[in-house]
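Supplementary notes for students who missed Thursday's class. We covered one full example, reproduced here. Read the sequence, then the structure, then the short commentary at the end.
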Amino acid sequence: MTIPLWFKLAYTAFVLYVMAVWWKHYGWKNFLWFSDIAFIGAVPAMWLESGALSSVLTVAVLLPELLWNLDYVLRLLLRRRITGLTDYMFEPERPLLLRGLSLFHVPLPLVLLWLVAAYGYDASVGLPGAVVLAAIVLPLSRILSTPEKNINWTYGLGAKRVTWPGWVFLPVLFLGFVLFVFVPTDWLLRFI
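Structure (token representation):
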């Protein structure tokens, strides 16, 4: 299974467009979100045809992206707040363009799974790479973010802020990502 050239070109163009819009409206710190890292990182993974990079990105975000999609669909159907992951998609004050571009979350799990199917799951890199990524990105997110932006939930899960000091909360959050996101995704990808 290969990824056709037309898809690589279209995906790359879309990512570059979204990056330009995000930079203008949110600033460069927004690219620290794990989902943005995977969305952008899929470009070099495609062009390099890298199973290793595809594996790391998929382990890091597949489960949260599936949860984002479930939250979004249920919110559309039930008209109720479910997990809070997609609250920003329903803020009328947020420009429609920004909300529309955030729909990249919908195909992202499929793109990542396609990459892994095309280039193979590298089990020797997937889980360790996601752990290293989180060990770098989570502290940076806490340092460079604010409680209002709460990038990668380093100030609390969703809108719920924690009162714990960062030096206590970040290791707990890191362990949560490793145990409840990365390890199950690694097991799933090894299985399939």
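Commentary. The radius of gyration is 16 Å. The mean pLDDT is 95. If anything here is unclear, bring it to office hours.
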